[in-house]
């Protein structure tokens, strides 16, 4: 018994010598080699790490856009406040008259929104040109197209901000009174500039034909309203709209600039719509060419017909915009012939577009065709009333402009809906293909034995499967 106890004690002592103590301090060699046992993190350090990781969660695209728009608004607010304060202190007495003071304030707001619109648009990625537009696929032409887009869109948005801010500031001056408004003018201008810059940055970051068309009636209504408010001819509406711009005053120049920029807006809408129609047609042709495995046959009759429809549509709508630009560029008194050519000639391409719309764009809804024909009937009936002397030419022109802009808005929203459906279809197709691949893999693994699954994992990822095979 004594010998057994001695053997047991000797074995326990040897085992204790082989097993390191949990409380024993690590040796110097272990510290140098990095073999020392690690301390367990306390609950405080774990919570700190969780808060740190939660704080560093990356933002998405839309959140970054909203954050940058807020930063742009704050910068514009500060610059506008300082600029308006300096203007009120340093400007001469003739530039402190109410009309010129409002003009300077609206200019500060317009310049702020103009610059922030350019910054927001410059940060958006350049859209790739579709296969149907061969020339636009070259990098220099794409850069030129990008520069033209930025300049034209920023000018239109800046002009819209100018007209709207001038009208709103005039109304605020009338409501609040001159003394109170003058004391609060820097703060009011700064607030307007901040809001305009925020909206400009957001609009530029997600620009589309729908956004431009939605901005178009606001721009035209604001421009005509400001021109009518500042006009020195209170009876212009008895003749026609051209009478409002048939002078050399500030109001007449403002009205003519509104028409020119409205025509530019219609050309921009034409560009966006043509680009989307070409992209959609290319997607349809790619899907039809044996699921994209074969090149598109550009010599086929169907492909040529689709391209011809897009070209004819773009030409007709762009000519309508050119007509508006011509009306604003050539006043009636010095250029009666050119003014009438553009004013009456723009009805021809727009009328042809409304009549040929079912053939030019078969992808639109039938209600859009009915809406186009209703516009033709309403405008034609109002024109007959003017020929009989029952109404003025001003009302005929106003109704024609309103129906034109209503059609452009409805058409742009149809194009935006086609774009959304195309993107959604691509997302759903990609999701279905991923789900099918995962489902096929799951079915394949379900029919395997355990050794076959291990072999499958080894074939898929040998680096992960090797340690597991060694441990077995």
How is this fold's topology laid out?
Layout lengths: L1 H17 L9 H6 L9 H13 L5 H30 L7 H25 L16 H38 L1 H28 L3 H22 L19 H39 L12 H29 L6 H10 L1 H9 L1 H4 L5 H22 L5 H54 L3 H11 L1 H10 L1
Give an account of the 3D structure.
It is flat, with a radius of gyration of 35 Å. It is mainly α. The chain is built from 17 helices and no strands. Helix 9 runs parallel beside helix 15, helix 14 packs antiparallel against helix 15 and helix 16 packs across helix 17.
Please describe the structure with a list of short key phrases separated by commas or semicolons.
single chain, 472 residues, mainly alpha, 17 helices, 78% helix, 0% strand, flat
Q: Helix segment count?
A: 17
What is the beta-strand fraction?
under 5%
The gross shape turns out to be flat
Topology order in helix (H) and strand (E) letters: HHHHHHHHHHHHHHHHH
How much is the radius of gyration in Å?
A: 35 Å
Beta strand count: 0
* Largest pleated sheet: none
Distance, first to last CA: 42 Å
> What helical percentage do the residues reach?
over 70%
Low-confidence stretches: 19-25, 29-36, 131-136, 289-293, 463-472
The overall pLDDT average reads: 76
The class by helix and strand makeup works out as mainly alpha
């Amino acid at each position: 018994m004594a010998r057994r106890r001695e053997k047991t004690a000797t074995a326990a002592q040897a085992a204790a010598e082989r097993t390191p103590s949990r409380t024993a301090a690590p040796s110097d060699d272990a510290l140098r080699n990095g073999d020392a046992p690690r301390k367990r993190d306390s609950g405080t350090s774990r919570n700190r790490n969780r808060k740190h990781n939660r704080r560093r969660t990356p933002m998405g695209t839309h959140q970054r856009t909203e954050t940058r728009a807020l930063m742009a608004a704050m910068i514009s607010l500060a610059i506008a406040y300082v600029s308006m304060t300096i203007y009120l202190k340093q400007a001469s007495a003739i530039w402190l008259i109410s009309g010129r003071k409002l003009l300077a304030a609206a200019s500060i707001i317009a310049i702020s929104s103009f610059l922030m619109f350019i910054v927001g648009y410059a940060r958006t990625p350049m859209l790739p040109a579709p296969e149907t537009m061969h020339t636009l696929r070259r990098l220099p032409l794409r850069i030129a197209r990008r520069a033209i887009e930025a300049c034209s869109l920023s000018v239109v948005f800046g002009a819209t901000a100018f007209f709207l801010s001038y009208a709103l500031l005039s109304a605020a001056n009338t409501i609040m009174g001159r003394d109170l408004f003058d004391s609060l003018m820097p703060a009011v201008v700064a607030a307007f500039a901040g809001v305009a810059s925020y909206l400009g940055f957001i609009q530029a970051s997600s620009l589309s034909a729908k956004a431009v068309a939605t901005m178009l009636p606001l721009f035209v209504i604001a421009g005509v309203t400001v021109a009518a408010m500042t006009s020195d001819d209170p009876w212009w509406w008895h003749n026609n709209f051209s009478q409002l711009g048939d002078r050399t005053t500030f109001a007449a120049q403002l009205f003519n600039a509104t028409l020119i920029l409205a025509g530019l807006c219609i050309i921009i809408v034409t560009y966006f719509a043509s680009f989307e129609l070409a992209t959609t047609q290319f997607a349809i042709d790619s899907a039809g060419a044996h699921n994209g495995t074969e090149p598109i046959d550009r010599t086929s009759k169907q492909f040529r017909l689709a391209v011809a429809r897009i070209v004819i549509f773009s030409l007709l709508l762009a000519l309508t915009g050119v007509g508006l630009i011509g009306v604003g560029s050539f006043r009636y008194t010095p250029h009666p012939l050119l003014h009438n050519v553009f004013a009456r000639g723009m009805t021809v391409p727009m009328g042809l577009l409304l009549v040929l719309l079912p053939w030019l764009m078969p992808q639109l809804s039938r209600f859009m065709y009915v809406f186009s024909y209703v516009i033709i009937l309403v405008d034609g009936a109002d024109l007959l009333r003017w020929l009989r002397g029952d109404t003025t030419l001003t009302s005929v022109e106003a109704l024609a402009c309103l129906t034109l802009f209503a059609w452009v808005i409805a058409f742009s929203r149809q194009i935006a809906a086609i774009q959304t459906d195309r993107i959604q279809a691509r997302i759903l197709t990609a999701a279905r293909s991923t789900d099918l691949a995962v489902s096929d893999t799951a079915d394949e693994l379900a029919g395997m034995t355990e050794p076959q699954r291990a072999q499958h994992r080894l074939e898929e990822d040998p680096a992960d499967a090797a340690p597991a095979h060694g441990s077995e």
